[in-house]
Amino acid sequence: MSFIQFQRNEEAARVIASYYETPPLLFVHSYGCQQNVNDGEKIKGVLTDIGFGLAARPEDADLIVFNTCAVREHAEQRVFGNVGALKGLKEANPKLLIAVSGCMAQQKDVVEKFRRHYPFVDIVFGVNGIDTFPALLCEKLAAKKRVLRMPSKREEIVEDMPLRRDSAFRAWLPIMYGCDNFCSYCIVPYVRGRERSRKSVNILREFHELVDAGYRDITLLGQNVNSYGKGLAEDIDFARLLRTLDAVPGDYRIRFMTSHPKDATPALIDAIAESEHISRHLHLPVQSGSNRILKEMNRHYTAEEYLALIDYAKRRMPEMTYSSDIIVGFPGETEEDFCATEALIRRVEYMQLFTFIYSKRTGTRAAEMPDPTPHKEKTQRIARVLALQEQVVAKLGGAMVGKTVRALVEGAGREEGTRTARLDNNMTVDFTGDIPEGRFADVRVTGVRGAQLLGRLA
Question: Which of 98, 143, 358, 405 has minimal Cβ neighbours within 10 Å of its Cβ?
Answer without folding.
Answer: 143
